[in-house]
């Protein structure tokens, strides 16, 4: 997935929540790396499939997710979505969010 204008069209803020917001997004493809230093992020797959990649101690850990599966990404852990197919996802995302195109140095 390309980021910039296309990304903003794929993500909709549903409601503010604490220091962030609840979002729903719908897309296919892969995302850039991101992390949320201020809190955990909750990710719930509403439809479609994806592989979530977590970068822990410079090692990429992958988990395949499908409809009705949920993952909590710990604060500060770099992560991205890979090979998403018609992914509709709801997230509870704290702010700020850091972004990287290249794999971060753990």
From TrEMBL:
This is Cupin domain-containing protein. SUPFAM superfamilies: RmlC-like cupins (SSF51182). It comes from Dyella lipolytica. Residues 29-92 form the Cupin type-2 domain. InterPro entries: Cupin_2, RmlC-like_jellyroll, RmlC_Cupin_sf. It comes from the Bacteria. Coiled coil: none annotated.
């Amino acid at each position: 997935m390309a980021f910039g204008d296309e990304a903003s069209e794929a993500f909709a803020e549903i409601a503010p929540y604490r220091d962030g917001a609840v979002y729903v997004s719908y897309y296919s493809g892969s995302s850039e790396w991101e992390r949320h230093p201020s809190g955990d992020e909750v990710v719930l797959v509403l439809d479609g499939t994806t592989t979530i990649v977590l970068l822990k101690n410079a090692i990429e850990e992958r988990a395949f997710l499908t409809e009705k599966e949920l993952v909590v990404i710990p604060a500060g852990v770099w992560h991205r979505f890979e090979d998403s197919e018609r992914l509709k996802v709801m997230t509870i995302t704290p702010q700020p969010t850091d972004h990287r195109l290249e794999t971060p140095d753990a």
